Amino acid sequence: MSDKNTVQKLIEQYGEENDFTGGASSIAIKQAGELTDTQFPAAYRWFIERYGSGGVLGINIIGIGKNNTYVVSKITKQLREQFDLPNNLIVIEDCDEFYYCLNTDDSKVYFWDNIDGMGEIVALDFFSFLEERIRDMSEN
């Protein structure tokens, strides 16, 4: 399993100015969770609190944008309404034809698409997911 220090170092290594929207307050994070009727896992809360939304090397982690724009809540609710995304999943990355979703019950990251639904486990936790995504993109 990865940790926040590893993820933070990778972000510092590959990050550029304006890659992220900027951290969100704990109140905004709580409100975003309430809008999706979930409580965000600790690792994801840490990311939003520190970075808000965004990413490096073409990765775009969905979170809370500038001016407390609850992007994660909006996209998650939209997919729940249109494609029956399960209530325990929140969308953390939109890859056009599929999504990476964080399971708020077990903190694992899953592959999900609107045709086949929930697929395989991609990572055991958010930090491992983000570390693997950054390392994969840095090799390409």
From TrEMBL:
Coiled-coil-forming residues are none
**Where is the signal peptide, in residue numbers?**
none
Please give the superkingdom of this protein's source.
Bacteria
The Knr4/Smi1-like domain is annotated at 23-132
Q: Which Pfam families match?
A: SUKH_5
Name the record gives this protein = SMI1/KNR4 family protein
State the taxonomy lineage. Bacteria, Bacillati, Bacillota, Bacilli, Bacillales
